[in-house]
């Protein structure tokens, strides 16, 4: 019998792996609905859906290996990062999805949430005030007008699988929707700034790197407390707190 491996588990959702099958259990069926519909629409490789019986979605493992992991050097060649950039450009050029969720939030609302979170980070003793203040300043560049694109919404490097320099699959589409294209690029390269040039080369058009850096700061500031309270370690080498320190 294949071993049951817990990939991720917290109060909102859990993912288990049994052999070549992933079982995703989610308390919010809307996220699963989004994931299933997104995978049916996007012009990039995605996992095969094996079956669905709420609250469980079963998908097949994709071949290849993850592009990398946060906090660890990526063994993927520059060509794989460039291929990922090209795949993301195909996604962003696709027709917009019929739903409005995802990374497309009102800038004023997001700024207010960030200000509240920054205050909690300081008063709760999670991070020093100067580190929070500096990154809040950097994050300001993300609050600008942008044209909605079909975005993945949570494009961590562990969600992109490659074989050599070929993309074999992009997983975890529950946050997909109409969003800021640069948010996807920033999420992918968070903690791997050295590969941003490769991704942009594959993406095929110039991007505002100050906005990407702003999203690095913004995403990290919003994540530190949640990660700390859910059993993850944003203080590990190369992870979110180091991303924030790099902006000092």
TrEMBL record:
Ranges where the Aminoglycoside phosphotransferase domain occurs:
41-204
* A matching Pfam family: APH
The protein's superkingdom reads Bacteria
Q: Which InterPro entries match?
A: AGP_Transferase, Aminoglycoside_PTrfase, Kinase-like_dom_sf
> Which PANTHER family does the annotation name?
AMINOGLYCOSIDE PHOSPHOTRANSFERASE DOMAIN-CONTAINING PROTEIN-RELATED (PTHR21310:SF40), AMINOGLYCOSIDE PHOSPHOTRANSFERASE-RELATED-RELATED (PTHR21310)
- Protein name from the UniProt record: Phosphotransferase
Which species is the source of this protein?
Streptomyces niveus (Streptomyces spheroides)
């Amino acid at each position: 019998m294949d071993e049951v491996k817990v990939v991720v588990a917290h109060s909102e959702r859990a993912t288990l792996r049994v052999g070549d099958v992933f079982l995703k259990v989610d308390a919010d069926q809307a996220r699963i609905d989004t994931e299933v519909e997104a995978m049916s629409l996007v012009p990039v490789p995605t996992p095969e859906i094996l079956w669905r019986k709420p609250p469980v979605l079963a998908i097949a493992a994709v071949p290849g290996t993850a592009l990398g992991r946060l906090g660890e050097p990526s063994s993927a060649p520059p060509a794989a990062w460039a291929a990922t950039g090209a795949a993301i450009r195909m996604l962003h050029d696709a027709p917009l999805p019929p739903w409005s969720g995802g990374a497309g939030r009102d800038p004023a609302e997001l700024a207010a949430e960030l200000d509240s979170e920054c205050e909690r980070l300081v008063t709760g003793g999670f991070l020093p005030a100067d580190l929070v203040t500096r990154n809040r300043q950097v994050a300001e560049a993300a609050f600008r007008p942008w044209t909605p694109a079909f975005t993945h919404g949570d494009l961590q490097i562990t969600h992109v699988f490659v074989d050599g320099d070929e993309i074999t699959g992009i997983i975890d589409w529950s946050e997909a929707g109409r969003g800021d294209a640069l948010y996807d690029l920033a999420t992918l390269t968070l903690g791997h700034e050295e590969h941003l040039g490769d991704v942009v080369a594959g993406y095929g058009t110039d991007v505002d790197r100050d906005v990407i850096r702003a999203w690095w700061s913004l995403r990290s500031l919003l994540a530190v407390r949640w990660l700390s309270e859910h059993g993850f370690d944003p203080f590990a080498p190369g992870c979110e707190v180091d991303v924030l320190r790099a902006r000092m």
